[in-house]
Design brief:
The complex is a heterodimer of chains A (527) and B (115). Chain A is an all-alpha fold and 527 residues long. Chain A has one domain (5-524). Chain A is built from 21 helices and two strands. Chain A starts with a helix and ends with a helix. The chains are: A mainly alpha (527), B mainly alpha (115). The A-B interface holds A 169, 172-173, 176-177, 180, 210, 213-214, 216-218, 220-222, 224-225, 231-232, 234-235, 237-238, 288-289, 292-293, 296, 300, 307, 310-311, 313-314, 351, 414-415, 419, 423-424, 427, 494-495 and B 1-2, 4-5, 7, 81-82, 85-86, 88-89, 91, 93, 95-97, 99-100, 102-104, 107-108, 110-112, 114-115.
Chain lengths: 527, 115
């Protein structure tokens, strides 16, 4: 069983970092790279196992069975990994590994690096924990581990006020959002007496009370904040640009997905399954109206993709532009999840979910690339102000090329990976409601405008500030070029990836036959 | 599912749109429905009666041509929207908290009533 090592390895790496760093000056960097590399291998193995067998892995902490002694219901902490969780774990481990490699060169001149690498590994533990856990309180614990590491990393460069201010604001409001999530968990536990997600799903379907709806509202509100949806996106636009670029890549690429989008999808489809409640409603039994939940998600999705992308157009700070673009892209992912909820059990619903999952992976790769490019520019030129970066293409051709690939992919130009996922989201929204598709396309127009502006700046007349610039060192270019290659290769095989990975993942998340619940029931004999 | 190259339809639609808008513009110029070509350094008139009035914020548009009201309204509207966006947010912690509470309140209200 490889699954526990997904947590054990990075956790061991993080806590051993202060001791390892005493052994020599460069050892901590290599230690972080080795740990995150091994974690990536483990995550690839877990993903391959789940993908190959198409079965959910259920692991109980400290026991063979989640059922407690003398009782007939699950009381132990379970980790339940379906294809969605495994795919996200793979993405998280991969991007984190690249961020660590990039940091070798990028953070060379910084001090306190043992803290930096400890925090990166703790951040990775938090995210990996979120995507593998099947216990709602355990989920909260990992969410807090992830959040606290990100607060600290945002304020890591404390020589400027920007980072400190952004970090403090992020921490205060983030803690409040976490408290709402915790309140939701407390309400569910008080009402149903269990914390195991699959078991909660059964209990809620048996007796869907007002308390369950209140809890769902607190979850959605808190998690919308964590995913950076409009109108609670402001922390993101402050925090992501203030962090070191390798961290921005992880925050924009991974943290808002694992701690926000993934959690929303898991709670909506795992705990409050739309199919289950639609079935109950068909017999006039009490149930949660999941259509309302779907429309809430779609409403915030449309708001997010329009405002996020439009705000990106007017930015002069390159990293802030990318941060707002992340907000916009979260809108597309939420739109896919919303349509998956509304059109549950139909082709449009399945496509919506598959598109959302596909875009989570694609956006993680693309946004990581763009932030790493921004980091390379800041590292070489010393500014991220677009008005001062004119004519960079001539001095940093490889970096500019990487930017062009990233920008084209995020806009959704074929033949790059962003096209396929956005196309599936457009398609599913057009199938469900053409107005939603039109809104999504308008968002993309804004996105196009924003990135074209950066491109024109890079290709424009050379300014004095960029005269001395050149492409950065190999350790920084390697992750950037790796991402470029992956984006191009994934773009050449769009439908193969969709059919072989994304659609099965969406089906497993949708659990038309209650697979996520059944995996637990096998243990407690309730099937 | 659509085919991979079906994205080309976007291009077709764009090109057809371009041709239609060009023809419309030519027609509008010909029948002078408020669209007129002006020379170098000429002012844009937002109405035939008030020839001195330059479009606020759009002084740089001199030498181009524009419609009488519709174009003016559209461009000004878009410009104002981006001006609002540029102001972004206050950056005050209390505002961040207020937005979070309002969002949760909306979700809570909708779910209690409709959920």
């Amino acid at each position: 069983m490889m699954l526990p090592f997904l947590i054990i390895i990075p956790l061991f790496g993080a806590f051993s970092m202060p001791i390892v760093s005493l052994l020599g000056k460069k050892i901590k960097e290599y230690w972080a790279a080795i740990i995150s590399g091994v974690t990536f291998v483990v995550s690839a193995r877990v993903f391959y196992t789940v993908w190959k067998t198409n079965e959910i892995i259920l692991y109980t902490l400290g026991s063979d069975s989640p059922v407690g002694r003398g009782v007939k219901f699950p009381i132990r902490i379970v980790w339940e990994v379906d294809l969605f969780g495994a795919l996200l774990a793979l993405t998280i481990a991969f991007v984190s590994f690249l961020a660590v490699i990039y940091s070798l060169g990028y953070m060379k001149h910084d001090t306190g690096l043992e803290k930096y690498y400890t925090l990166i590994l703790v951040l990775e533990v938090g995210m990996l924990g979120i995507v593998i856990t099947g216990d709602i309180f355990n989920f909260y614990v990992f969410l807090e581990i992830m959040s606290i590491a990100s607060y600290a990393l945002v304020a890591f460069r404390n020589d400027t006020w920007e980072g400190i201010e952004a970090g403090i604001k992020y921490m205060f409001v983030g803690s409040l959002a976490s408290s709402f999530i915790l309140l939701g968990i407390a309400l569910l536990y008080g009402q149903y007496g269990t914390l195991t997600m699959s078991y909660l799903a059964i209990k809620i379907a048996e007796n869907p009370t007002l308390v369950a709806k209140l809890a769902l509202a607190f979850f959605i509100g808190g998690l919308l904040f964590k995913s950076g949806a409009v109108p609670v996106h402001m922390w993101l636009a402050d925090a992501h640009p203030a962090a070191p670029s390798s961290i921005s890549a992880m925050l924009s690429g991974l943290v808002i997905k694992a701690g926000g989008i993934y959690a929303i999808a898991r709670i909506v489809f795992g705990i409050f399954n739309p199919g289950l409640h639609a079935y109950l409603r068909a017999f006039n039994a009490p149930a949660v109206n999941m259509n309302v939940v779907g429309w809430i998600i779609v409403f915030f999705a449309c708001l997010t993709l329009l405002v996020g992308n439009a705000m990106a157009v007017v930015q002069t700070d390159m990293k802030r532009l990318f941060a707002f673009s992340s907000v916009g892209q979260i809108g597309y992912i939420l739109l896919g999840i919303g349509i998956g909820t509304l059109a549950y059990g139909t082709k449009a619903g399945e496509l919506g979910l598959a598109g959302a999952i596909y875009h989570i992976v694609n956006h993680a790769l693309i946004k990581a690339l763009l932030f790493l490019v921004a980091g390379a520019v800041i590292h070489q030129v010393g500014t991220k102000n677009l008005n001062e970066l004119s004519g960079l293409a001539k001095r940093m051709p490889l970096t500019t090329f990487s930017f062009v690939i990233g920008a084209a992919a995020i806009i959704g130009l074929p033949p790059l990976n962003g096209f396929a996922s956005k196309w599936i989201i457009y398609e599913s929204s057009a199938m469900y409601n053409p107005i939603l598709a039109a809104i999504a396309v308008v968002g993309t127009v804004f996105s196009l405008a924003a990135y074209t502006r950066v491109l024109f700046t890079f290709l424009g007349r050379e300014s004095d500030t960029v005269k001395e610039a050149k492409d950065p060192e190999k350790s920084m270019m390697l992750p950037v070029l790796t991402l470029v290659v992956i984006i191009i290769v994934m773009g050449l095989l769009p439908w193969q990836i969709s059919d072989k990975i994304m659609i099965p993942t969406a089906r497993m998340l949708e659990q038309l036959n209650g697979e996520y619940i059944m995996a637990l029931l096998k243990f407690i004999g309730g099937a | 599912m659509f085919g991979y190259w079906d994205a080309l339809y976007f291009l077709y639609a764009f090109l057809i749109g371009l041709i239609i808008s060009y023809l419309l513009m030519k027609w509008a110029e010909k029948v002078s429905t408020g669209t007129r070509r002006t020379g170098d350094g000429a002012k844009i008139y937002i109405s035939g009666e008030d020839q001195d009035k330059v479009i606020p914020h759009f002084e740089h548009l001199r030498g181009y041509f524009t419609g009488r009201h519709v174009m003016w309204g559209l461009i000004r509207g878009a410009h104002r929207m981006f001006l609002v966006f540029k102001r972004e947010h206050t950056g005050l912690l209390t505002d961040y908290v207020a937005y979070l509470l309002v969002t949760i309140a909306i979700v809570l209200g909708v779910l209690i009533i409709g959920g």
